[in-house]
Amino acid sequence: MKSVALLFLVVICGVAGWGQKLKPKKRSNGEEINFRTKTKDVCTMSMSGDEEMKLRIECKSQGKSYWCEYTGKPSVCRPFRNNPKLYWNQIAMELRKLPHACESTQVLKATMCQKAPADALMKQIAAGMEPEDLANHDKSVQKTSASVRGAGKSSVKKTGKPAILPLIKPTQHGQGSENDTEAMKLAREHCWESLHGFCSYIIGIFRG
């Protein structure tokens, strides 16, 4: 009877141990943590990977956005394996103390893994900045250049053709003016000086 009871206890312990081994490991993949930096930048950090993990941080600040990526093996830290969520929360707490989530530090470490090997540290591998108003700026430049081109075309249309000035006909010297000249000559030759105009008039009548 005692042997049966002992065997039953062994079976129970074995099943419990086997179930404990099959218990899924705590994971933090796909989780996101939102936070704000010391300068009020709105940021989101997301984690991916298994043994070697990748951390991506994306932030928005004053009309522009920036991002950076870290990589490391926090799994070599035993406290991380026990509670990865606490690990990432501590990382977020450290980032909240910084004025810039990507430029202020090249290495991230949680307080719970201070004594862990160097491989456990999250080291920055990439970073960048993307102005959000870049597309709007390009559109405004295109509109401005189009308006300038339109104004240039209209000015060419208006000023392209030279103005047509009215023709001024030269004064035609007719036969009458010649007659007047001849009459004045004769008047000067045959009349007193005081009567030049009268004589010229009379001679012009007779010659006309």
Describe, in plain words, how this protein is organized in 3D.
The protein is α+β, with helices and mostly antiparallel strands and 208 residues long. Helices cover 44% and strands 21% of the residues. The protein contains 6 helices and 6 strands, in the order αββββααββααα. The protein has a 6-stranded antiparallel β-sheet with strand order 1-2-3-4-6-5, with helices on one face. Strand 2 and strand 3 (53-61) form a beta hairpin. Helix 5 crosses helix 6. It is rod-shaped and about 145 Å long. The model is unreliable at 4-13, 15-27 and 167-174 (pLDDT under 50).
User: Percent range for helical residues?
Assistant: 40-55%
Structural class: alpha+beta
Give the averaged pLDDT, no decimals: 74
> How many angstroms does the end-to-end distance come to?
171 Å
β-strand amount = 15-25%
Evaluate the radius of gyration.
52 Å
Task: Write a concise keyword list for the protein shown above.
208 residues, alpha+beta, 6-stranded antiparallel sheet, 6 helices, 44% helix, 21% strand
Task: Give a concise summary.
The protein is α+β, with helices and mostly antiparallel strands and 208 residues long. 44% of the residues lie in helices and 21% in strands. It has a six-stranded antiparallel beta sheet with strand order 1-2-3-4-6-5, covered by helices on one side.
Present the secondary structure layout.
Blueprint: H1 2-21, E1 32-36, E2 42-49, E3 53-61, E4 64-72, H2 78-82, H3 84-96, E5 107-108, E6 122-131, H4 134-159, H5 175-190, H6 196-207
Antiparallel strand pairs: 1-2, 2-3, 3-4, 4-6, 5-6
